[in-house]
């Protein structure tokens, strides 16, 4: 399963409790007026990963506390990839929030 990612950012304080790594999914169909992330809306852009490859990249950062936030964009546009990530993360990465 492939997934399109806009960016992966470490040391985020504004995306949930604690210091987090945030995965910004590419693509959004919500069309908020005054979108602050318009460059993320087109699903054709972004970097393509296999979900397993994405999870392995996150693990490679060796985060002391594995606090991960999934954001976007609209991550639910890639819902199947989210489900696959959950299966992988059950074993490897705890504390995912969306
Ligand atoms: S990227 Fe965020 S702000 Fe922009 S349209 Fe989508 S949900 Fe709204």
UniProtKB/TrEMBL annotation:
Keyword Magnesium (UniProt): no
SUPFAM superfamilies, per database record: Radical SAM enzymes
GO MF, one example: 4 iron, 4 sulfur cluster binding
Alphabetized UniProt keyword annotations: 4Fe-4S, Iron, Iron-sulfur, Metal-binding, Oxidoreductase, S-adenosyl-L-methionine
UniProt cross-references to CDD domains, sorted A to Z: Radical_SAM
Highest taxon in the source lineage: Bacteria
Family (UniProt): Belongs to the organic radical-activating enzymes family.
Protein name: Anaerobic ribonucleoside triphosphate reductase activating protein
Species: Leptotrichia trevisanii
